[in-house]
Amino acid sequence: MELTAREEPHGPPPWRRDSGVLRSPLHDGGMSGASDTLEPYLARRQPASGDAGGVLLYSESDLLLHDAPQRTGSLPGLVNELLAQPSSADRVRLVRRLLHGLGFEWLAYGTAGIQRGRAIPRSFLTTYGHPVWTEHYFRERYYEMDPRHYDAPSSSLPLVWDLDDIAASARTQPGSSRARRFLNDFGDSGIRSGVFFSVASPDMPHERTVISLMSSAPQRGWIVDSVLGQALTLGLSVHEFLSRHVHRSVFASGPRAELSALQRDILECLIGGQSDKQIAHRLSLSSHTVDYHLRQLRRRFSVRNRVQLVNAAIEAAAADRIHQRMQVRA
């Protein structure tokens, strides 16, 4: 199934038709039930730091195309169109146009490490996500309560869901007060239905990429097979583009090319889960020296805390391998 910007996607579901014109809440002056209800609630709860619970957040404007020439002949049409866009702003407009054309408002894209059978988010592309819900979701660690993540470590089959499904599954979990808070906040976000699936990482055996297309439509019945097929095509095309053809600008020209050998060693220790004391002992450094280099590395990767630095180091290691493969192919 091929989906390109030149083709007319599957027609909008009945709840979205208005004199034959596709209308999205994002284009109607905001989302009732989302900005109107969630933002005042979050204003009372959010700390001023803007921290996202250790998850590394980035946007389309942080991405750079690989320097190596692209072999576009065998790529899906939509991937070629993404590669052909002259700027990140044009790319964003293309993806949003296709997303809205299918009846969805938001696309969530991120990586998650698999630890003891559970998905732990590491990084997240914010550009297409819900602008209010995203940071709140990670800050509150709602992924620990979100039943959509339960099958992510073991299955790549798509899950078609609505809020009633989430509520039914969440109520069966321990920690009912936190589950109720998750459900209340999720309901206030304006998100009501969607498609959720994950893809195994070829470079990181204990990591998966999570892709979720979301809508304000109240029930999942509108996501018929034709819509599901095009949603998967869009999600997988975005995944192919992001995972194979771009890298974050902080990693340009080889993700860790500007780091010293000592800083690389410290990053490897961090990935291995070693404490500052263990790093100092292994590398024969003082605790002051380790602390100094960790501060330098946090600035280098534009992160705020140790968890984010570990996630950035893991992604840098994976990006290094991709960069090296691209250089060989060139």
Automatic annotation (TrEMBL):
Keyword flag Amino-acid biosynthesis: no
GO MF term (any one): DNA binding
Basic and acidic residues composition-biased segments: 1-20
Alphabetized Gene3D superfamilies for the sequence: Transcription factor LuxR-like, autoinducer-binding domain, Winged helix-like DNA-binding domain superfamily/Winged helix DNA-binding domain
InterPro entries, sorted: Sig_transdc_resp-reg_C-effctor, TF_LuxR_autoind-bd_dom, TF_LuxR_autoind-bd_dom_sf, Tscrpt_reg_LuxR_C, WH-like_DNA-bd_sf
Gene Ontology biological process terms in this record: regulation of DNA-templated transcription
Region (Disordered): 1-37
Residue ranges occupied by any HTH luxR-type domain in the UniProt entry: 252-317
Keywords: DNA-binding, Transcription, Transcription regulation
Protein name per its UniProtKB record: Transcriptional regulator
Source organism (scientific name): Caldimonas brevitalea
